[in-house]
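Anyone able to model this chain together with fe (ii) ion?
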Amino acid sequence: MLISREFNQAINVQIGREMEASLQYLSIAAYFEGRYLKKLAGLFFKQAEEENEHAMKFVKYILEAGGNLEIPALAAPKATFESAEDAVGLSLKWENDVTKYIYELVEITLKEKDYIGREFLSWFVSEQLEEVSSMDNLLGVLKQAGEKNLIMVEGYLSH
Ligand SMILES: [Fe+2]
Ligand SMILES: [Fe+2]
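re: yes, here you go
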């Protein structure tokens, strides 16, 4: 077995978070669909898929390392939003929180001198740079355009 109990447990918790993120992004995609903003919706449908892939990467790691998969109960995603800025602001906050959680996982591997685990997490560390920066960028664009000009944001996203 190449995974400690503590790291195994922490990854199980993270799998739940990735799945919750996937559900949250799905719910944001539906919000944009409801407002006829297809490009924004498409972007969040894609994000939802990616979060599911993240969960699967953790699942495969646990199984390969000989650990136990225990998926925690998932919280229901937020389903209503006041504005596009509200929905994307929530996503940015989420990505910042996830970055912190990934760092906490890294800390466990360092403490345990689990270099396989540390190496595995590198991908997630780099991924968070991209996730936070792209969400931050989208929020900036939304703020500049304003709630009344979201259709211009759709045009911007088509390029
Ligand atoms: Fe993720
Ligand atoms: Fe993410």
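Residues 18, 21, 51, 54, 98 surround fe (ii) ion (ligand 1) (CB under 6 Å).
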